[in-house]
Specification:
Layout (H helix, E strand, L loop, with lengths): L14 H7 L2 H4 L3 H17 L5 H20 L11 H13 L12 H37 L4 E6 L2 E7 H26 L1 E2 L15 H7 L4 E2 L3 H6 L2 H27 L7 E2 L18 H24 L13 H25 L1 E2 L1 H9 L5 H10 L4 H17 L9 H7 L7 H4 L2 H6 L9 H17 L1
Parallel strand pairs: 3-4
Antiparallel strand pairs: 1-2, 5-6
The structure holds arginine.
Length: 459
Amino acid sequence: MAQLWGGRFTKETDKLVYAFNASIGFDKRLWQQDIEGSIAHVKMLGKQGILTTEEMQRIIDGLDSIRADVESGRLVIDDSFEDIHSFVEAVLTERIGDAGKKLHTGRSRNDQVALDMRLYTRIQVQMTDELLKELLSVIVRIMEENLDTYMPGFTHLQKAQPLTLAHHLGAYFEMFRRDRLRMQDILKRMNYCPLGAGALAGTTYPLDRDYTAELLGFEGPTLNSMDSVSDRDYLIEFLSALSTVMMHLSRFSEEIIIWNSDEYRFVEIDDAYSTGSSIMPQKKNPDIAELVRGKTGRVYGDLIALLTVMKGLPLAYNKDMQEDKETAFDAFDTVKDCLILFTGMLDTIKFRKDRMAESAMKGFTNATDAADYLVGKGVPFREAHSIVGRLVLYCIEKNTSIDVLPLEEMKKISGRFEEDIYDAVSLKSCVEKRLTTGAPGRGAMEKVLAVYKDYLNGN
Ligand code: ARG
């Protein structure tokens, strides 16, 4: 058992208590941030004359050597320590002697862990933003190639109106772009440095908190020492934003699963991104999409777990907060994997344009356009709606569709139908006439695509 305290204790910690209390099993992944934070702290102690320049240099060299050795694998993080902070400090003292014992001057593990976690999370937020950008680039590439790929649009999972694959994917572009904006926004709010808050009430040493904040790339120091060691809002915001990313990925996955089904066959998932069945040789399953959909529940769980951990905690630090790490790490890892795999799957997927167009022709997706056609001939919309309703019913009975029904038969339902109805209800004109901003017609889509490409070039 290796711990940083013990002076006021007369008995050894019970072994189970020690194991229950220890966090090194999961907080060892903070080792780089722990060393980086300690180096900044020590530089500041040296600048302020709290440590001599020589002591400062010895500690920095010692920490640098630990960093190099963990990196190269020469030094293995030893799980018998209570946490990563204890490990680094113990190795430092072992390497440089008494100077190592001065590292923790004017610092508590409470502000130390608050700092480490913030530094680590900051990288995760940036990484998520970059992965989202890669996904957006794939989406834009597919959009550019599919401005004329007609497909049915759905409401209630019933065919509604025709649109294009570019337009459908554009909806996801919007979602993932907002997800990126959320990441960038979180980054701004969280980027303040808690180091120097001490256990909860600052310290009596003349620390220069602006200096450490600057060394570590923060906007400045946090302004309340109690809040600094108790705040996990930034993690909750991040887990909430990650949950939204997963919700978007999950909806997209669900669509891919539906499109990949035998009934639809709108897409074919690349062999590299599908799996087979151990018993049914014909199977090619969309497991990646299903797993992404499934793992969404897990990320929501991480968010709810952390919200619940925090809800009843009095100020300031409580050990409950150690529970922030496994939930946060699980969410970070899960979302990262899901984004990478989903992007790879989407990048290699084949869209069956023929199947999509064929499906868009069926299911009376042009019924609204037939009604609009009658409106163009002077029929009030409500009346037009009712006429086309009867026309659809007639087609269903005859097992046919509006676009191929002979004009004489249409005229039996309304004398206002003329030869030009066929052009008005063709798939192409149903889509291409929709030109309002945000609509699927090519003219409208090209403008939006230009905005998306500019956005990706500039961000
Ligand atoms: N492992 C602890 C955590 O993650 C470090 C802080 C310990 N602080 C304390 N007062 N026991 O929260």
